Amino acid sequence: MVDLQTFECDYVSQASFDRMANFKLTRCAVPDITDWTVCKSDRDWKEHQAADLRISYSICYSHSVESALHQLSDHRVKSFFTGGSIKPAQREKIKQFVGFTNANDKTAQKFLKDNNWNLEAAVDAFFATGGATANGRSWTGADQRKLSALFDKYKDPDEDAILVDGTESLCNDLEVDPTDVVTLVLAWHLQSPRMCDFRRKGWMEGWTNLGCDTIEKMREVIPSLREELKDPSKFRDVYNYTFNFARAENQKSLGLDTAIAFWELLLKDKFKHLDLWVEFLREKHGKAISKDTWNLLLEFIRTSDENFSNHDTDSAWPVLIDSFVEYAREKLGFEDE
Q1: What is the pLDDT of residues 152-197, one digit of tens each?
Q2: Contact, 274 vs 263, CB < 8 A?
Q3: Angle at the Cα of 236 (from 230 to 239), degrees rounded to 5?
Q4: Distance CA 114, CA 99 (A)
Q5: Residue 134 reports pLDDT greater than 50
Q6: In terms of Cα–Cα distance, which of 270, 274, 280 is closest to 327?
Q7: What is the C-alpha to C-alpha distance for residues 166 and 269, in angstroms, rounded to an integer?
Q8: How confident is the model at residue 48 (pLDDT cuts 50, 70, 90)?
Q9: Helix/strand/coil (H, E, C) string of 266-315?
Q10: Is 269 in contact with 297 (CB distance < 8 Å)?
Q11: 245 and 194 in contact (C-beta within 8 Å)?
């Protein structure tokens, strides 16, 4: 079956025009252009450009575009078949844009071009519209109107936020226990500033990135969110995010009981000496946990061996962790090793 595509280009050399004839090139009906304009040089093109002339053509081909490109040598014609010449640095920005937004390459290129290839500005522009097209559907397929309506369903009647009651209803509809660790991954995606507090902006952006606009789709994505905890990089992001999420408003530190509860939720399968750590905190520390201690504990778990023999007290570990190592080695009978 012959495919038909219509392209527009700014310049066609005579040689390329002759080659394209082999691919059944046909003239399009374009206002004010009654015949093909073939530019034999860049100078000719500049003259036509000044006259605001453009060339449009249709090309019918039964072979792949790659096959056509193999026979076409003109750079400008090639670049139009391939969507334009993209520099390596621009390709990297497209890749980063896709990683940030979950949009496709075409969308990434559009927003980057519109913002002069400024990645930060392009991403901001994408999310400024909720990642949505003019008809309200996001580039990832999520319907913004449906998402907004769902937010309204769960939000507090007196505040534009989903609070305690709304969070409970949402978890019930998602068939997720509020104490399940996957709720932390979800809160991270939805940019929740603290427990039982979801804001409209984070809700719209988070679910849009996940491609969900119905409770059914949201329920279906829960298993994949749980799988993200197996990715060391994402686990670290969720772990670090949890400190601010769990912290009481206007407090710099995390209450000890709260910290222990979240450590037991996050680290039960990752820290062999978690019970000993909790015992040490309750027996020897008894105070709130700083952000520095919270964040560095994960690095300590990843780098320490089973009996802490490689722990260097001269390194920049928090004093609390150094004290725990001394306590744990004594408890485990390693103090003389």
Answers
A1: 999 999 999 999 999 999 999 999 999 999 999 999 999 999 999 9
A2: yes
A3: 100
A4: 19
A5: no
A6: 280
A7: 30
A8: very low
A9: HHCCCCCCHHHHHHHHHHHHCCCECHHHHHHHHHHHHHCCCCCCCCCCCC
A10: no
A11: yes
Q: What is the C-alpha separation between 186 and 215, in angstroms, rounded?
A: 14
Amino acid at 55: I
Helices (H), the chain: 14-21, 42-50, 65-71, 75-81, 88-101, 105-114, 119-128, 144-154, 164-174, 182-189, 200-210, 215-228, 232-246, 256-267, 274-280, 291-303, 319-331
Using pLDDT thresholds of 50, 70 and 90, give the confidence band for residue 130. Answer: low
Token pair for 249: 């408003």
Half-sphere exposure of 135 (CA within 13 A, CB side): 4
Sequential DSSP letters for 44-57: HHHHHHHTT--EEE
Q: Taking the CA of residue 310 as centre, how many other CA atoms within 13 Å lie in the half-sphere pointing to its CB?
A: 7
Q: Compute the distance between CA of residue 185 and CA of residue 205 in angstroms, rounded to an integer.
A: 15
pLDDT digits (tens, 9 = 90+) for 235-258: 999 999 999 999 998 899 999 999
Distance (Å, whole) CA 73 – CA 63: 17
Q: Return the structure tokens found at 254.
A: 């995390």
The dihedral sign for the CA sequence 110, 111, 115, 119: negative
Q: Which of 115-124, 129-138, 190-199 has the lowest mean pLDDT?
A: 129-138
The residues near 157 (Cβ < 8 Å, ≥ 6 apart) are none
